[in-house]
Structures are given as C-alpha cells and as structure tokens.
Amino acid sequence: NNSSPRLFQDDSSVYVYSEKELDNLTIGITDMMGNVYHYEVTTVPACTYYAVPIASLPAGTYYLSIYQGSNYVIGMFTVN
Questions:
Q1: With 0-12 CB in 10 A as exposed, 13-18 as middle and 19+ as buried, what is 62?
Q2: Which residues contact 24 (CB under 8 A, 6 or more apart)?
Q3: Across-strand partners of 2?
Q4: Integer Cα distance of 50 and 15 in angstroms
Q5: What number of CA atoms fall less than 13 Å from residue 78's CA on the CB side?
Q6: Cα-based distances in Å from 37 to 3, 10, 52, 72, 79
Q7: Buried b (16+ CB within 10 A) or exposed e, 6-20
Q8: Per-position DSSP letters for 9-76, written without gaps between them
Q9: Would you tell me how many other CB atoms lie within 10 Å of the CB of residue 49?
Q10: 73: exposed, middle or buried (Cβ count in 10 Å: 0-12, 13-18, 19+)
Q11: Tell me: the pLDDT tens digits for 10-48?
Q12: How far apart are CA 27 and CA 57, in angstroms?
C-alpha cells in the first residue's frame, strides 16, 4: 500500500519518505552485531524526505529499522 514508508539512500543519508505524516516514529540504525549507531523518535511530515545521516558510519552493512506502534519496516544498507 502507498502509505508504507519508503527508504532511499545516497552517500550522506538514508531517507524515510511517506505520503502521510508519521507521528512518534522510532528510527534506529544498528550494525550486524547489534551495536546501535543511531536512535531517535521523531515525526516525519507527509511527502517529505526525512534524512538520517550516515556519512560518519564506518564502512559496513547496517540495518535501518522504523517502528510506529506495531507497524515496522526494516531495511538494509551498506556504507562503503
């Protein structure tokens, strides 16, 4: 469905995009070992690309998890 948040990545950030406002959204970045590199609770406005900075992360593969209540999206991305 179109209301699910979508994830995009460039060299400096991972972006959360949603067509509807997402309140009390928890965004976390962890590595494969479970170490937490980023954690925040925020609101993503409708039709906005919300940037989560990744430029300072060490090279490797990470999980980006997004939770809102019982709904969640987990994505994987790599930093070179």
A1: buried
A2: 41, 43, 68, 69
A3: none
A4: 5
A5: 1
A6: 27, 18, 11, 18, 13
A7: ebeeeeeebbbebee
A8: E-SSEEEEEESS-EEEEEEEEEETT--EEEEEEEEE-TTEEEEEE-TTSPSEEEEEEEEETTEEEEEE
A9: 13
A10: middle
A11: 999 999 999 999 999 999 999 999 999 999 999 999 999
A12: 16
Whether the Cβ atoms of residue 27 and residue 52 lie closer than 8 Å to each other: yes
Residue 75 has pLDDT above 80, yes or no: yes
Residue given tokens 């940037």 in the structure block? 51
